Amino acid sequence: MKLSGRSSFLLTFAATGLLILFLGSSFSFAAASSPSSAIATQASSALGKYHCIDCWAGYNIQDSTNGTITAVQATLLVPTASCKGVAGKNGSSDFIIGLDGISNGNDFATAGVYINCHNGQVQYLPELFDVNTGQAEAATWNSSSGDKVFISIAYLSGNWVYKIHDLTLKKSLTATLAATGAGLNSAECIFDTYEGSSGIYPVERFSTASFSNCIVTAHGRTGSIGSSFGSAYTLYENICYNHNGKEIIASPSKLMHKKDFTVTWRSSGP
């Protein structure tokens, strides 16, 4: 089951693009559940940090040379969400992986569990998207809080190859979609917000979400997202802030074992 309007919005957003500031350079910032704006700053340590306005919480790796990050996978422990207190009874929090989320007009492939409050009722929706083309597929079943869900995306022979497998329910969604303009310059394991026609949706309160075994294939090598893939690659921590940049919506824990982390709800925003 899928909320109407999400796919059509994605296509509109991908066509317009969004700029963030990164050490004086411009990057196009794509998002499956799109932020209205984003500001990025880098810490002085080896771990970069993005302070995202209405966007991501989690980790992503970037390739400064482009074209070598070809796969990402992770297992999500689906959190429990509550619609209590969500303005208008509609809200959204998305727990996804992606390829090409930080791009220069490139494609963006994303998949995961999209948690929505619709008329005050919680929905846990496994879905996959190709942002630039607007192609999307939703599972014929809903996940539940506490489910373990394996998610993977790979770039093979000009296509995005997706898999969402609910290990608890033993149900799977797979798809192969043509990749148009893939840059292959980043991979993400993240929480994200969602923007509809009326703006950023409030983020429903959720229990701690867990990403485990966030694994990336870069330059032909497969390893933990926090592994050292070489000087061309930088790992970034993403913290999601509200519109004015003063209140945290969601934040990740420190990266454990170079591949595991949790995401904690802080406020509903936006």
Keywords:
4% helix, disordered N terminus, 16-stranded mixed sheet, 1 helix, three-stranded antiparallel sheet, mainly beta, single chain, 270 residues, Jelly Rolls, 51% strand
In terms of topology, how is this protein built?
Blueprint: H1 6-16, E1 19-22, E2 25-29, E3 48-53, E4 57-63, E5 69-77, E6 81-82, E7 91-99, E8 102-103, E9 109-118, E10 121-130, E11 135-138, E12 148-156, E13 159-166, E14 171-178, E15 186-192, E16 195-196, E17 199-200, E18 205-206, E19 209-218, E20 221-224, E21 233-241, E22 248-252, E23 261-265
Parallel strand pairs: 3-21
Antiparallel strand pairs: 1-2, 2-8, 4-15, 4-21, 5-12, 5-19, 6-18, 7-9, 7-15, 9-10, 10-11, 12-13, 13-14, 16-17, 19-20, 19-23, 21-22, 22-23
Describe this structure in words.
This protein is mainly β and 270 residues long. The chain has a single domain, classed as Peptidase G1 (Jelly Rolls, Sandwich), CATH 2.60.120.700. Helices cover 4% and strands 51% of the residues. The protein has a 16-stranded mixed beta sheet that branches. It is globular. The N terminus is likely disordered.
Shape: globular
CATH architecture: Sandwich
**Uncertain runs:** 1-45
- Using the coordinates shown, work out and report the CATH topology: Jelly Rolls
Ends: how far apart? 25 Å
Number of helices: 1
Q: What do the pLDDT scores average to?
A: 77
Which structural class do you get from the secondary structure elements?
A: mainly beta
What is the element string, with H for helices and E for strands?
HEEEEEEEEEEEEEEEEEEEEEEE
Q: Proportion of β residues?
A: over 45%
